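Trying the structure run again after the queue cleared.
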Amino acid sequence: MFLAHAPDAAGSPSGETPEVLPDLIAALLDGERPVAREEALAQLRRQLGRIQGKVQRAFEAHELSGLAAARWLAALTDGLVGAIHGYTMAVVPPGPGDAKTEPPFALIATGGYGRGVLAPYSDIDLLFLSDAPLGPQGRRAVEFLLYLLWDLGLKVGHATRTVDECIEDAKGDVTIQTALIDARWIAGERPVFERFDAAFAAFRKQSGLAAFLAAKRAERAARHARYGESPFLVEPHVKEGRGGLRDLQTLYWLARHAFGVQRMPELVGPASPGGGLLTPQEARAIRRAWNFLWTVRFHLHYVTGRAEERLTFDLQPVVGARMGYTRHGVQDGVERFMKHLFLTARDVVRLTRLLEPALERAALGPPAVLPAGDAALAQAGVALADGKVLIAPDRNVAEDPAVMLRLVRAARDRGLEIHPLAHRALVRNARYAVKLRDDKAANALFIDILSGRDSARWMRTLNEVGFLSRFIPEWARIVGLMQFDTYHVFTVEEHTIEAIGVLGQLERGELAEVAPVASELVGQVQSRRALYVAVLLHDIAKGRGGDHSELGAEIALDLCPRFGLTPEETETVSWLVLNHLLVSQTAFKRDIDDPKTILDIAETVQSPERLRLLLVLTVADMRAVGPKVWNGWKATLLRELYWRVAEVLAGGLSVPERDTRVARARAAAAAMLSDRPKEEVDHFLALGYPGYWLSFDPETHARHAHMIHEAESEGAPLTVRTRVIEARAVTEVTVYCADHPGLFSKIAGALAVAGASIVDARIHTMTNGMALDTFWVQDAAGGVFDAPHRLARLAVLIEQSLSGRLRLDAEIGKLRREPARLRAVQIPPRVVIDNHASNSHTVIEVNGRDRPGLLHDVTAAISEQGLQIGSAHITTYGVRAVDVFYVKDVFGLKVENERKLATLRKALVAALGGAEAPSAEEAALRAV
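Done. Tokens:
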């Protein structure tokens, strides 16, 4: 019997070969006679446990890196599988006459196992290889061996083929061809494997690289579409995602297919295949990325106890801590760990752009480089090859680094792709972008690309090749920077590029249905360059500590003159960065029906142009956060806020005295009810306090009048009406009943049990002592709550809650909680009380982890303090809830007593479920 070890199997830092227990085969055979199967299985189980334990202990003691551990595990598994093969051949010997007719077979490792690396819970891929189809004894041996492996609990992928079948199958299936590239002999007849190896090498040479390369590119594109096109997703798939292990393996397969190399360093140097496709630094970068990703993968497998490849929120702090990442300065350990992971993924993307075209050209020959078709391209230093643009061969990027920007502009202007060889040149020469920082022509060219057609596409290219980090040093600090929350889907720089893309969509009218006002306004802005630069810089100061808006505004003052912007444009960009959260925070956290809210924001904005710019920037920023952030209700709030502030800035609305506005609202309501008896109308007009008349439009007042009249005519103690508002993606729920303390809390609890999520609310007590409360709700996914059976159940639950027949605490406790993977995200409770935001109410803002029934608990705490809720504004950012309440005391006044405020704050923190966060956490409330 023959045994083999994985190539390069040295695993310890000292280079020692992993030990395979030498007495295993002897123990299984017990001299010349094999032991019974059950005894053999018991010994093999013990050996497998020793192997797995040995590798895990060494890895977790940091004696082995991830790559070394993967090689150890593969080599030790080789010894186990080889011993099983020897035991099998002793138990299932050839029968009489079989020795001459039974073809011998070799046991071959394929796939990842064939490469000599193995993760703790990965499959073991085996090939039973022979010159001719196996006979009865061979088939029995294969079956016996496989059942032993399965009984050991190993996941085994297997195939039985002849050498000719391997070649034939490889021709028709690129997956089989890829697996066979990694084929490695373990045990059995080595000459059989050597004949296959020679035949397969001849097949690869004959078939060439082109078809295999095209198939792997298509496979990679499909994989990225499934697991994420971006290498900067905040819950990355370490194995299959872009910039992950599979992308590195693809490079290895291409190099192996083209040149037969076993390791990437074999491509270094002029004497190497291809004439030196990699520099020593690039080969080391591949090794570092390979090692880091394998280390992360091993930790994922050991932490979860399964073949888990996705690094979810709950696993990120655990893996980061196991790898030794701790807090440094303002960055948590998990954020430092994830930044390292994202930078590694970015390096994999760059190495792919660098090596893949070089492999292609070394194997297939250089492309036919044509001179530029016109003088402008030739003067720019751009040539054409394969219908794509690349840097002209006579241009030295080190001497003329601006040619990199001219290349990108030429691709954009001519509607052409950048040639893979040009990508390789961009990656290798990105460091020369440092020379362009003070080059006026280069900065003007950069701004032209930033504000031109398909700018997000070209910004992403410049970011991936490393140009942006060298050209804008502040950009380098946000590359790979994640925020450990469930709200942001991308890292900071990828979110910024996404926002630039949304801005382009708005200009092209592609978002006219979901963001009609912003789509219209973007064509009216006078400061278009300033808008694009503001989007580029709006999050540039994240990760530095402090308020990123203020710090970013200062950075903008330094960068904009360098970019060639005028002093006016520079001031505009700085102002936009400083205030880029103003519109969203006001729309979602304040009562926009309160005149002071509108006047405050108008005083800050001061000009219609700035208001237009700010709204467009807000829409781009929000839609770039993630697919679930934007919805119809938020769009409605932003639109209404914009038009109200715009009216003030245009001088068309001077916010008249409160009594005048109330009188107008009452008159408009009376006009809507002109077909009703005068006594009925007068009765309704006498019911509302001033705040009620200023909270709704005349149509809503008319609906309320009909509802109240019906309730009084029928003597109904409770009336519930629902109205689906498709345009706003909400359902309006109106409740009319006798007012009493805790009413809001009980209704909120009933809505939670019904599966409705409150996004806004208006609470009014009428002069007859009845409550007229209006809630705007959505379903859990942020859509319209419109299913008829759910609406009917909602009304029933409200009635049961108010009558005391529904045990709210018990029912809320049954509701579905958040997935376990999200619990690692810490949301410290925070309560902010503001007596300046409104002239008539105390404004309470509570921040905490969102959960079913949270609003019920918080509003119950407010009611228990003897306060009346006038309105509520509910927003969620991932698992963070930000709820704002406008409240008064029992006398209808603001709450200004310090002792009362301290008691209120303590009660609210208790309702949120924890100790209040320190004031330094205020920056964490920045949601966008």
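The radius of gyration is 34 Å. Worth checking whether this holds up in the mutant runs.
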